[in-house]
């Protein structure tokens, strides 16, 4: 009996000593530091369906990294209303106030995400609806600008990973007939983005299909084209999956 008790005590004590280093190391895990730069329009800025900027997919994606033992330094350059020309001006024009800090952020980034081009298209949507032949030159212009942006990012920082977002249907509450006319344009738009990203060696992140599953819930305001927090969470998850796949 005494031998049995001593054996049990020895086992308990040894197990405690084994667990101590593990507990200490778990508390002192050193998080990996990296810089994340986000470029884009109101989606990067986190604009909600009711006109307020909150946590969008950029912030939610950064949070996912934080939860996975990373320290993230986030520079979010997303601004509501931005077009490809706005980013080009900040990227190529030395007289732009953001030029130096913008390029410096890119040069330090391990990760870059970008969503841009939707406002370029929306600005021309009325003309395209009146004359569908105008769609092609508009898409070509967006593609040309996006290629210039992505190419310059590679020149500034050839080692960074760049993830380029595809867009969802912004008008799920519109009549079916109107949507039927818009969907081919949205598809062509996303194909343009995907093609340019691929040409530049960057990763395209589609969002149209995952948002489509619950699009009226994710875009609850019929008068607005922005996602709610659940929609942004879905987009962030798609980025996360793409990043994990392309490590």
Describe the 3D structure.
There is one protein chain. The protein is of the alpha/beta class and 247 residues long. The chain has one domain: SGNH hydrolase (Rossmann fold). Helices cover 58% and strands 12% of the residues. A five-stranded parallel beta sheet has the order 2-1-3-4-5, sandwiched between helices. Helix 3 packs across helix 12, helix 4 (84-92) packs parallel to helix 8 (135-156) and helix 8 (135-156) packs parallel to helix 9 (176-199). It is globular and about 50 Å long. The termini are far apart. Mean pLDDT is 89; it is low at 1-28.
In short:
The chain is of the alpha/beta class. It has twelve helices and five strands. The relative contact order is 0.13.
What descriptors fit this protein?
Rossmann fold, disordered N terminus, about 10% strand, alpha/beta, five-stranded parallel β-sheet, about 250 residues
